[in-house]
Each structure stands twice: as structure tokens, then as C-alpha cells.
Design brief:
The chain is an alpha/beta fold. The protein has helices spanning 19-23, 34-51, 66-77, 91-103, 120-129, 152-160, 209-213, 226-235, 246-262, 264-285, 314-323, 349-362; strands at 8-9, 57-63, 83-88, 106-111, 135-139, 141-142, 147-148, 164-168, 187-191, 202-208, 301-305, 326-327, 329-330, 338-342. Bound molecules: pyridoxal-5'-phosphate.
């Protein structure tokens, strides 16, 4: 027998899942059988419902981690005469730009410091200055810092200037309420192992049907061609091109049911907010300050400044907390030493209280 989880993952994905989500993986499925393909269709429809997209939207599942789905969107929707503007304030914005650049796409990057909100005025100025920009991409929750980017003014600008708007909502979709139609998001990307609380193995894209249809035969990557994958799923009622992560898909369906049981996205959002509130309050009481001001923090993950004490070491903190049953996350902010604690997943206020007790117990600096 494989032992129970030895620790809780306080990481932004993969994250701690429920026992029942893991148990759902305990059988094999045939990747093209109708029993299995029916599950896929149910998932696709549920994702569109969660996005509030209605009949104008569709969803496509894509093998791989979340980054593969970001890359699939860019291969699929950028044409040789397209120009992508990436609005970036962290590692994931940078990654989107890196993918576009490596593809040889026409690219502009508008960079804001980590820890600063993207400035809509600067975005509008860039759109005016470079009318060749056809697509605007950005990240919703910038997992680098835990900043919840205010995407709405930028999406409004994309609509106003008739640009295709791409949102990497990887670490927020399902955990933060959002309406994909208002303002309009043309392509929204997320993955199985974030706020839906499934296990890793695939990403998914919510797309405006008309926009997606326009992208037929664009992609120069075969395996990351979202339209081809979509058409196969539509025509064959839930069939994937190529081997699909069957166990992960079954676990994801269970995770979606558990999201419903919890009370939907609103209820999950409230739990994440409570986890976050307790964590920040407790850490600050222990003298550890959050990197961002409260108004910019997300209920997803929080970056904390490393204590200035000369004997502080992240590695030591990590190892001591791991032995107490909690796995935390290293920092990714380039300008300041930080570490991160995630509060999404099958994690509850009581777990956060236990974590804070553990931090107090092991405090060595
Ligand atoms: C997790 C995450 C991704 C995807 O990362 P993978 O490691 O490929 O799953 C992309 N963007 C953001 C904002 C994320 O949090």
C-alpha cells in the first residue's frame, strides 16, 4: 500500500487534492470508448458554465501542463501578420512573451515592475502607438507575487480597440468568480491542477467559438493545434487527438462535482479568502510581512518577505515545515528575497491555523 499524504501541499499546483478526487483514479478507461468520451463532454460543458460563457463559448482540453495550453493558444490564434502585446508584471507574463518570441511571432512586451498593477493608460498608449497590435495577452493572478492583476480595464481596452484578448487565468479560474463575456475574454487558459482542485495532466481553454473557428489551419504546431483538437472533440463527441490523460480526466470530473458540493465558485472563493486572511494575519503577528499591499494580494498564493535576521534560511524553514507536515514554495520575485505560501486546494482554515502553530514552534530566527 502507498502511504497517505505525508504533508499538505501549500503550493499553487499541483496542490493538495481530496481523497475522493484521488480515489476517482482507481480504474482504467479506454481513451476512445463512448463511456470515457461522455465524461469529457460533461467536463467541457461544465467548464463553459463555470465561465458563464453560454452558447457563444466552447472549451477545449489539451494534454500537458498549463504552459502547453498557453502555447497552444498562441500557435493557434497568431497569424503571420498578427502582433501580440504581452502586458507583463511577473514570471508568467514573461513566459507568455518567451513562447511568442520563440515561435517567431511579432511581439511587443509592456513590462511593469513585479508588485505593480499593469497601467491601463500605458496599455492604451501602446495600442495607439502600434496599430499593428492584433492580440493582447496578460495574466490574471500573477503567481510569482500572488498579485491579482486588475484585468478588467485592459480587457475593456482590448474590446474598445478590437483586439483579441487572451487571459492566462491558470491559477484563478474556478477559485475567483469571473464572467468571460463582460468584459469579453476571447481565450481564457487554465489547467486541471489549480483551483478546480484536480490532479495534473492537462490544461483547458475557454474560447469564443467564432474566434476559434477563425483560427482554422493557422497553427504551425500539430500537437498544439487547438482548432484541430476542438474539431475532433466536437465531431467525435469527446474524443481527444492522441492519448489522453484518462485517470486525470476522471479525477477532474470528481473535482468538478466537489466544487458544486462546496457551493460553486463563490463558496470556494470565500474559503480561499478566509485561508488567505488567516495566513497573512498570523504571519504578520509572527513578524513576517507580505510582499504586496493587501489591495493587490490574491486569495490564491501570498509572497512573504524573508525575515531580515542573519540566520534566516528558506531551506531551513522549508525543511522544518516539511517535517511538521507542510510543504511551502520558494520565492520567484526577482527584486526581493521572498517565499510563497499557497492557500488553494483541499486546504481549510483549520489547516492554516495548524500551519501558523507550526511556524511559531519551529521559529529559529
Ligand atoms: C501554474 C501557472 C501556469 C502554468 O504552469 P505549468 O507549470 O505549465 O502548469 C501558467 N500561468 C500561471 C499564472 C500559473 O500560475
Amino acid at each position: 500500500m502507498i502511504p497517505e499524504n505525508p504533508y499538505l501541499l501549500l503550493t499553487p499546483g499541483p496542490l493538495s487534492t481530496s481523497k475522493t478526487v484521488r480515489a476517482a483514479m482507481n480504474r482504467d478507461w479506454c481513451t476512445w470508448d463512448s463511456d470515457y468520451n461522455g465524461l469529457v463532454q460533461t467536463i467541457r460543458a461544465r467548464l463553459v458554465e463555470l465561465s458563464q460563457g453560454g452558447s457563444a463559448y466552447t472549451s477545449v482540453l489539451m494534454q500537458g501542463s498549463g504552459t502547453f495550453s498557453v502555447e497552444a493558444v498562441l500557435w493557434t490564434c497568431l497569424k503571420p501578420d498578427s502582433t501580440l502585446l504581452v502586458v507583463s508584471n511577473g514570471a508568467y507574463g514573461k513566459r507568455m512573451a518567451r513562447i511568442a518570441s520563440q515561435m517567431g511571432a511579432n511581439l511587443r512586451v509592456l513590462t511593469f515592475p513585479e508588485g505593480s498593477q499593469p497601467d491601463p493608460e500605458a496599455v492604451e498608449k501602446t495600442l495607439q502607438e502600434y496599430p499593428e497590435i492584433s492580440h493582447v495577452g496578460m495574466v490574471h493572478c500573477e503567481t510569482t507575487t500572488g498579485m491579482l492583476n486588475r484585468y478588467i480595464p485592459i480587457a475593456d481596452l482590448a474590446s474598445k480597440w478590437e483586439k483579441v484578448f487572451i487571459l492566462d487565468a491558470m491559477s484563478s479560474f474556478g477559485g475567483i468568480p469571473l464572467d468571460i463575456r463582460a468584459p469579453k475574454i476571447d481565450f481564457l487558459i487554465s489547467s486541471a491542477n489549480k483551483c478546480i482542485q484536480g490532479v495534473p495532466g492537462f490544461g483547458f481553454v475557454l474560447a469564443d467559438r467564432r474566434r476559434l473557428q477563425e483560427c482554422e489551419v493557422n497553427s504551425k504546431s500539430h500537437s498544439l493545434d487547438l482548432v484541430d483538437q476542438w474539431q475532433t472533440m466536437e465531431t467525435n463527441q469527446g474524443k481527444w487527438r492522441f492519448t489522453s490523460p484518462t485517470h486525470t480526466v476522471r479525477a477532474f470530473l470528481q473535482a468538478l462535482s466537489e466544487l458544486d458540493e462546496e457551493g460553486g465558485v463563490e463558496a470556494r472563493y470565500r474559503r480561499y479568502c478566509e485561508n488567505h486572511r488567516l495566513l497573512v494575519q498570523g504571519m504578520e503577528a509572527l513578524g513576517i510581512q507580505a510582499f504586496l499591499p493587501p489591495t493587490d494580494q490574491s486569495p490564491i498564493i501570498t509572497a512573504f518577505r524573508e525575515p531580515a535576521a542573519p540566520n534566516f534560511s528558506f531551506e531551513k524553514l522549508y525543511n522544518l515545515l516539511k517535517s511538521e507536515g507542510f510543504v511551502i514554495y520558494p520565492g520567484k520575485v526577482s527584486q526581493a528575497p521572498t517565499f510563497r505560501i499557497g492557500h488553494i486546494g483541499h486546504v481549510f482554515p483549520e489547516d492554516i491555523r495548524q500551519l501558523l502553530n507550526a511556524v511559531e514552534r519551529i521559529k529559529f530566527w
